[in-house]
Specification:
The structure is a homodimer. By secondary structure, chain A is α/β, with parallel strands linked by helices. Chain A has two domains: 51 residues, Spermidine Synthase, Chain: A, domain 2; 219 residues, 3-Layer(aba) Sandwich (Rossmann fold). Chain A has ten helices and twelve strands. A seven-stranded mixed sheet of chain A has the order 8-7-6-9-10-12-11. A five-stranded antiparallel sheet of chain A has the order 1-2-3-4-5. In chain A, strand 1 and strand 2 form a beta hairpin. The longest helix of chain A is centred in the N-terminal third of the chain and has 15 residues. At the A-B interface, strand 1, strand 2 and helix 9 of A face strand 2 and helix 9 of B. Strand 2 of chain A pairs antiparallel with strand 2 of chain B.
């Protein structure tokens, strides 16, 4: 129990006006506003440091490994030769950290719209933001939609490590964006997109998958567990332009890579694509599960 | 958004003094105290009706199907001939409802210590408690530990559908109880136990599995998603006295059964036993994963 005289400080996120998630706060470490959003980093008593954008929990030190391992390793171990990787969003650096564990990756371009997120994480979340110091990193502070429309580069994998479709990330959920993204992917390219809660966001998940469908040969959803997101069950979209299947046995590649993980392993990779019936029904006829 | 003049009513569960989960409440439907615990049923705006014991969320109408399908169908489809089933706890009736979907089940004995839970659920949660009207049901208001020590009956499957190891359920997490339970199982019997959060309760999970180990041939953990429990990721223990493996292909049996589910399917069954490395490491040398 806390000392009775101590300030009873909590951060609370209210979701869909129905559900709230709260975390006891020891100290507010960072609190500033950019032209895009409010950015806060707090030290919690149970989850280590926590990043919030516009009051929504983005990550905590306790469990960020799950999200970042899954968004990176599922596509990177599926792809035979992931040279050139694009990350849209992900200004905390956690996704880039996991991508950079793959020795065959030659270049990682990360396009974050909000410099304040990068600066806050550089100062307070070095375990994630240390990836920005890697010589393979090409960090751009720019609008992801603009970048995808204008770049002449071609990528093997695009990871959309975005916030929710409110605020600055909204255009990243549009059909036009997915079309542009598919055009800058190589023929065997893979697009991964943050695909919200399969319980609470069935409508968003369905519209995202419909919007991606026309531009990819196969389309699927995979699941992960996130302690600081409402309901805990979360998902990513897996869209493949060529013949790379989500059902990939990565046992040998994972072993050879020497990469250390806490959540991802080759069995978890395959199991994450096994969907309960209520998720399959919602996306029936759209995804290839 | 809610009407500004409306009472801003929430139920909140604080977990390990660090994390809170809240649900907006439309109305308190039931609120009484038994000699064991406080029992409340509230109508929430986002999750339908919700049962709380001692202020801890037990279930909500929105997602109770996940927990109840998984605790029942994983062992019942694994076992070749589950005739006689014992449920310890489960006074809401949800687990019994799923067990009774199996036509080969001849008798379900449910031992709930707290009559008030049964009465509250009979009144306000008929979708779960309707199972008590089934002619195969043998509902006993009794202490589960006492029942297990005294019964002359033998069971094919025991489901420990308990609250957490605080309050009345505490003895259900002891080595002595698991030993007694194993003695009233048939030689090919299976024991399923509510095994807490793999993230937040690593110590409880480890001590539970250690306490069960000596009395069972194989021991494992399987995972499920529960929106109203802290972190969302939850688990059950799967302990098998004989040769029935947790790795059972239930495709044909599931199809033949005609049982309708929303979460469980034969692929989810197998995938639920695929464990991330941090869970395997915690239980290393104890479970057979």
């Amino acid at each position: 129990m806390q000392n009775k005289n101590k300030l009873d400080l909590w951060v609370k996120e209210v979701f869909q006006d129905n559900v709230s998630l709260g975390f006891r706060v020891d100290k507010v470490l960072f609190s500033e506003r950019s032209k895009y959003q409010q950015v806060d980093i707090v030290k919690t008593t149970g989850h280590g440091k926590m990043l919030l954008n516009d009051g929504m929990v983005m990550l905590s030190e306790k469990d960020e490994f799950v999200y970042h391992e899954m968004i990176a390793h599922v596509p990177l171990f599926s792809h035979p030769n992931p040279d050139n990787i694009l990350i849209i969003g992900g200004g905390d650096g956690g996704t880039a950290r996991e991508v950079l564990k793959h020795k065959n990756v030659k270049k990682v371009t990360l396009v974050e719209i909000d410099k304040l997120v990068v600066n806050a994480c550089k100062k307070h979340l070095p375990k994630l933001s240390k990836s920005f110091d890697d010589p393979k990193m090409n960090l751009l502070i720019d609008d992801g939609v603009k970048f995808v429309n204008e770049t002449k580069d071609k990528f093997d994998i695009i990871l959309i490590d975005s916030t929710d479709p409110v605020g600055p990330a909204t255009p990243l959920f549009n059909r036009e964006f997915y079309e542009s993204a598919s055009k800058i992917l190589n023929d065997d390219g893979i697009l991964i997109s943050q695909a919200e809660s399969p319980f609470y966001n069935q409508d968003i998940q369905l519209s995202m998958m419909k919007a991606q469908r026309d531009f990819f040969k196969t389309l699927n959803i995979f699941l992960l567990s996130n302690l600081t997101y409402p309901g805990g069950l979360w998902s990513f979209g897996f869209a493949s332009k060529g013949d790379i299947s989500f059902k990939t046995d990565t046992t040998e590649k994972f072993k050879d890579s020497g990469i250390k993980t806490k959540y991802y392993n080759p069995d978890v990779h395959l199991a994450s694509f096994v969907l309960p019936d209520f998720i399959k029904e919602n996306l029936s006829g759209i995804i290839d599960n």
